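Quick start: what a row looks like.
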Amino acid sequence: MLHSGRNDWLFRTPPEHQRGDPATVRETQRIYFDPSTPPDVYVQPGAGHGIAHEPNGADGFDAVLTWLAERGFDRRPRSRGRAQIGLTSETSQRLPFLSSVTRSRLAS
C-alpha cells in the first residue's frame, strides 16, 4: 500500500506537478513494484509529506490498519498500550511479494 498526502510534492508528476491522486501516485512509484501486482493507494486529503502530523493524521493510520485487516493481519494489544500487527501463515501465502524467509519470520 502506498500512503501519500494530497499535497505531497514528492509524489507529483512533472511537468504539470499535479496534486496527488491515486493514479498519479501509482504512476510515479510504478518502477518500484512488480507490474503484475500494482499497489493499492490511499491519498490523504489536505495532507502534505508529513501525513502523520496533519490534523487528520489519524485517518491515514485508520486507512492503513483497514488495509492490513482486509488482508488477514490482526491487531493484538501489546504492553504499554501499543498495538502489534500479526501475520498468520495462511495469510502470508496470499502475499506474493513476501519472500519465504520473511513469511516464516512474520508467522512465528
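That is the whole record. The radius of gyration is 16 Å. Residues 77-83 have pLDDT under 50 and may be disordered.
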